[in-house]
User: What shape does this take?
Amino acid sequence: EEEFLDDGCIFCLIANEEDKEAEVIQRSNELVCFKDICPAAPHHYLVVPRKHIMSCLLLNKEQIGLVEKMAEMGKDVLRARGVTDMNDISLGFHQPPYTSVDHLHLHVLAPKSQISTLF
Ligand code: 5GP
Ligand code: ZN
Assistant: This one.
């Protein structure tokens, strides 16, 4: 587990601690999806790797597959929650310094027209 989790990282905790299991909507061996605590749209989820990756700026070509799986899990959760129009969703990363949690997380929002203008 060395280099895998970061002590004191809230997303490491949510993704890996049993007592945080209730927050998790969907999981695979390398990813979890949970609700954003401060939703900016009727559907707002975060998909994170269980491993502590600090930022999208540190991703390399070998991790394209991981990012694709993150997007797939996000769309899966939306579908499971009744979203049918996959052209009316928003998926994306915020880039440092415009981030508040230093653990890679894909924002998954729907519908597009109801995303808060403050987001
Ligand atoms: P960003 O860093 O991409 O700008 O935003 C981080 C996102 O994580 C925010 O949308 C914020 O509401 C969400 N967030 C921050 N802390 C927590 C937390 O403890 N639990 C959950 N579920 N979401 C969080
Ligand atoms: Zn972390």
Observations:
- Residues 10, 34-38, 46, 94, 99-101, 105 surround guanosine-5'-monophosphate (ligand 1) (CB under 6 Å).
